[in-house]
Amino acid sequence: MARAAIPGRLGERLRWRVATLVGQRAETPAARTLVFDVPGWPGHLAGQHVDVRLTAEDGYSTQRSYSIASAPDGDRVELTVQEVEDGEVSSYLTNGVLDGDRLELRGPVGGWFVWEPAQPEPVLLVAGGSGIVPLMAMIRSRRQTGAEAPFRLLYSVRTPQDRMYLEELRTPDPGLDVTFLYTREAPEGWARRPGRLTGPDLAAVAWPAAAGPTTYVCGPTGFVEHTADLLVALGQDPDRIRTERFGPTGG
Question: Where does the FAD-binding FR-type domain start and stop, copy by copy (predicted)?
């Protein structure tokens, strides 16, 4: 049975847990999904993240934060990690880990940028690059629970090769509409020329403001701020726009 994180169990969520890698798969040439078994995992909500800690034999330790890609599902947690140039942790997680390896996870973390199946309003998801990860958790949670809230996803990537979860996003789903946007290179014959997200791009997929949608935007800081400004200019309620951003962290 899927379990939800209980806000009052703060101590449980702040405790480091040993996680064992039980599977992995490539999503793009630069990103991998890692599947961990985490005994005693307290459960999570779609949109939350975890802290990952690596400790070397000499005692050196470092940690990074990664969004959870999976819907709540018992003691299993999936993280999709995109390699960052010169990234200390991301390079190891995308190229150096083997099934059976163990590391430490702490979480789940976050309570604002989350979607719960009980929410009835229509949802717009806007992802920039690897910002798709927590939004994919929302899509998977919706499918897992049979929630009826309609979803629309606008997924902006540099090139077609950068699309994560492509097969899954192409699976027919009457409650999910997916639109891809390319900023540097588009597939042959694609109607829209490559370029930055624009107001008309958003207007073509956004729910009418009168429908009271909730919008989740995730990606690099510049992308998120630009998108939020465009949404407000389109008349969307700023209080219903939830954002999650990331920037260079050393990987």
Answer: 14-115
